Model the fold of this input.
Amino acid sequence: MPSSETIRGQSPQILWVGCADSRCPETTILGLKPGEIFCHRNIANILVNTDINSLSVIQYAVQYLQVKHIIICGHTMCGGIAAALDNKRLGLIDTWLMPLRAIRQENLQLLNSLDEFNQGLKMVELNVRQGVKQLLANPVVLDAMHERGLQVHGLIYDVRSGELRELDIEEDEEVVKSRVVAFKTV
Done:
């Protein structure tokens, strides 16, 4: 039964960007209740700057719900990641997986040096890092970080153990400054 607070409206502190995989329910993973997380889920938690759906969710969560944290979370044993590491033709989903295939291409030497299991783990991490990069270049996110301390986090959920691992996404001050110059709008 929903609480009376949840019925009146929502005021989540967290925007969760995660995979649509049914094994990765955000409220369960974080031990929270309905109404405490605003979420966007898609195959392999891909964020690109041309996806109006995810951009709308991000803007609404940041600008109107005033979330304090954005979490982008990838997970082990991800089918989207496995598909991007494979060369089978999948139809429409191939278009969606293009950003993952680009990450694969950019890191091919590293990925080829790993066994199959670790290739998957590394791709999950690289994809989360790319999603963080997309978030940090979003003008709405940049404004909220500057004006009210919005925080962005990159996490990886281990489907087998149920553990969450936070990635170190700290950046050099010069990188932060150049991103603000390039992407902040007024």
The chain has one domain: 10-183.
